[in-house]
């Protein structure tokens, strides 16, 4: 090739490697029937030496073809198992978790701690999950609802109810502020409490006359969200069937975080009662239940009692 025909080639450039966050991970398996030898992967736990991250297996509701009505119990047990395993991993590390697996009935841990890498620890755990579970690769990309992390602080009412419930039942902490979205660009929908037997949203009635109408509108929106959930819009995210759960709007007086309204501005008991009756009629229209309670403590007691029943 002569000098006249030489073509200068631009230097080849390779994209910078993004998966530079290294760590280790363990797969976790649940034995639905202890002693049977049957095991289902329910998630992975990853660590980078300073933090612990878990990734749960999605769409365990597909097991309904095998377990039928017991599927919801299996998925609930899987979540509790993961939460307990994460708690142990945070205090004992991955090595300590393997040594302590006998403390969680039905839990089995992978034979060895595996190395991995990702953009961050969350990404590392997600990649590891795809290696450990076929359900992870089958995760739906359609418009069915998926659970997403909750952002922002809970409202004063939700925070007060959660504090009261957790003081009685610490294991219910993660059942508050469950957030779901129907599609990638959809607005997330937040549910106050999602339990095994009770799914509830919270609302307040009371305070100044000026906010009473706004409170009723917000409460109606909470009822509408419950109707969508009850009718199966979020069934794929929470496992089906959902006929065994009760769907209720729990209403109580507002939790004051600042100055209380002046007496002359406060809505009368008759006005609050009328607003409550309006919500009850709206709930009846959706075939839901609106339950008015006298305080945050009564709301918390109602949740604990219903879940324990």
How would you describe this protein?
With 309 residues, the chain is of the alpha+beta class. It folds into two domains: 21-137, no CATH class; 146-308, 3-Layer(aba) Sandwich (Rossmann fold). Helices cover 38% and strands 21% of the residues. The radius of gyration is 25 Å and the shape is elongated.
Summarize the structure.
This protein has 309 residues and is an alpha+beta fold. It is built from nine helices and eleven strands. The chain has helices at 64-67, 71-99, 121-132, 134-137, 156-168, 209-230, 235-238, 269-285, 296-308; strands at 21-30, 40-47, 52-56, 107-109, 114-118, 146-148, 176-181, 189-194, 198-204, 246-252, 289-292.
Topology of this protein?
Elements: E1 21-30, E2 40-47, E3 52-56, H1 64-67, H2 71-99, E4 107-109, E5 114-118, H3 121-132, H4 134-137, E6 146-148, H5 156-168, E7 176-181, E8 189-194, E9 198-204, H6 209-230, H7 235-238, E10 246-252, H8 269-285, E11 289-292, H9 296-308
Parallel strand pairs: 9-10, 10-11
Antiparallel strand pairs: 1-2, 1-4, 1-5, 2-3, 6-7, 7-8, 8-9
Helix pairs in contact: 5-9, 6-8
CATH class of the largest domain: Alpha Beta
As residue ranges, the low-confidence spans are 140-144, 234-241
What is the level-2 CATH architecture name of the largest domain? 3-Layer(aba) Sandwich
- Helix fraction by DSSP (H/I, runs of at least 4): 25-40%
Largest sheet: 6 strands, mixed
Category by helix and strand content: alpha+beta
Radius of gyration: 25 Å
- The total tally of domains equals 2
Number of strands: 11
Mean pLDDT equals: 79
Q: Do you know the CATH topology of the largest domain?
A: Rossmann fold
Overall morphology: elongated
Tell me the strand order in the biggest sheet: 6-7-8-9-10-11
Number of helical runs?
9
Ends apart, CA distance between termini: 87 Å
Percent of residues in β-strands: 15-25%
């Amino acid at each position: 090739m002569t000098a006249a025909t030489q073509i200068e080639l631009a230097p080849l450039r390779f994209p910078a490697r993004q998966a530079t966050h290294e760590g280790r991970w363990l797969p976790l398996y649940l034995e639905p029937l202890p002693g049977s030898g049957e095991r289902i992967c329910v998630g992975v736990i990853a660590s980078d030496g300073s933090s612990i991250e878990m990734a749960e297996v999605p769409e365990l509701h597909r097991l309904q073809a095998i377990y039928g009505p017991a599927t919801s119990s299996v998925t609930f047990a899987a979540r509790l198992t993961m939460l307990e395993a994460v708690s142990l991993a945070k205090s004992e590390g991955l090595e300590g978790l393997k040594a302590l697996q006998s403390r969680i009935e039905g839990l089995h841990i992978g034979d060895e701690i595996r190395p991995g890498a990702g953009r961050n620890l969350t990404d590392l755990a997600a990649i590891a999950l795809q290696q450990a579970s076929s359900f992870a690769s089958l995760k739906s990309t359609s418009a069915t609802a998926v659970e997403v992390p909750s952002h922002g602080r809970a409202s004063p009412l939700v925070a007060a109810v959660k504090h009261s419930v957790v003081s009685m039942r610490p294991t219910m902490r993660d059942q508050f502020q469950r957030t779901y979205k129907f599609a990638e660009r959809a607005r997330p929908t937040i549910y106050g409490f999602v339990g095994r037997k009770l799914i509830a949203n919270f609302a307040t009635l009371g305070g100044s006359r000026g906010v009473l109408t706004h409170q009723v509108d917000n409460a109606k929106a909470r009822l509408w969200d419950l109707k969508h959930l009850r009718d199966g819009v979020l069934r794929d995210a929470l496992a089906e069937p959902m006929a065994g759960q009760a769907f209720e709007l729990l209403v109580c007086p507002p939790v004051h975080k600042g100055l209380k309204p002046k007496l002359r501005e406060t809505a009368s008991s008759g006005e609050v009662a009328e607003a409550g009756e309006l919500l009850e009629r709206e709930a009846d229209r959706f075939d839901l239940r609106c339950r008015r309670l006298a305080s945050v403590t009564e709301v918390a007691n109602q949740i604990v009692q219903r879940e324990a029943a």
